[in-house]
Amino acid sequence: MAFLTPDFFNLLVIVVIILGLALAAVRLYDDFTRPLLPDEPPVNPDEDTQPHHFAVPEHHNTSGE
Predict the structure, then answer these.
(1) Residue 40's pLDDT is what?
(2) What integer pLDDT is reported at residue 50 of this predicted model?
(3) Are 11 and 17 in contact (CB under 8 A)?
(4) Residue 30 in contact with residue 24, Cβ under 8 Å?
(5) Average pLDDT over residues 30-40
(6) What whole-number distance in Å separates Cα of residue 58 and Cα of residue 38?
(7) pTM, full prediction
(8) CA 8, CA 6: separation in Å to the nearest integer?
């Protein structure tokens, strides 16, 4: 375990920083070069796209009738 010197840890920190910068550069390049979405408006913006959920189904009768 004689290789665990302060110089080794300094080198390890520098390598991790360089690796992080390289991965960040790749990610930024991918983000800036991806195709953009078209500028077309949605077909019907007033249309509800979520299904309706009810606490009690309509066919469920709780009054005993």
Answers:
(1) 72
(2) 64
(3) no
(4) no
(5) 85
(6) 41
(7) 0.52
(8) 5
